[in-house]
Amino acid sequence: MQRRSFILSGMAALGGATAVARLARAEGQFEVTLSEAEWRKRLSDQQFAVLRQEATERAGTSPLDKEKRNGTYHCAGCDLAAFSSQHKYDSGTGWPSFWQPLPNAVATKPDRGLFGTRTEVHCRRCGGHFGHVFDDGPQPTGKRYCMNGAALVFRAA
Questions:
Q1: Best exposed site among 2, 13, 23, 77 by fewest CB in 10 Å?
Q2: What pLDDT, on a 0 to 100 scale, did the predictor assign at position 28?
Q3: pLDDT per residue over 92-126, tens digit each?
Q4: Are strands 152-156 and 144-147 parallel, antiparallel or unpaired?
Q5: Rounded to an integer, what is the distance from CA 96 to the centroid of its chain?
Q6: What's the pTM?
Q7: CA 63 to CA 100: how far, in whole Å?
Q8: What are the distances in angstroms from CA 105 to CA 43, 83, 108, 109, 149?
Q9: Can 123 be counted among the known catalytic residues?
Q10: Across all residues in the chain, what is the average pLDDT?
């Protein structure tokens, strides 16, 4: 019974952390702030879940993972240019991956969970959740920005 209580307590704490992150966005830390109703009107259900509730799309489901054209990936929430196709690579993970973002496009924060701490990547202008960054990417940065395709919109050059 103690193990079950511990797991349930941890899950409740994670839910609280997510609620705090959503509250910070709602309080206007970002240039673009909308009400939940306004975000829901602007975004598809999947985009809302990823960008505003920090969900993760299923691996291999985004057409942006296989996108090969030259262009720019923009935040699906506020249209800020976030990643260049020149920095995209096939990580084999099933999510669009980049070795660096565009200058002044993203911000990061610790994402603490049951399995340790990861680094969350979000849009610096609207706070929308993009995905996570890891230290197992290619040179020259060694970074893998593993992004949810639902959080991005591709604009061909």
A1: 2
A2: 57
A3: 999 999 999 999 999 999 999 888 999 999 999 99
A4: unpaired
A5: 11
A6: 0.82
A7: 20
A8: 20, 8, 11, 14, 16
A9: no
A10: 87
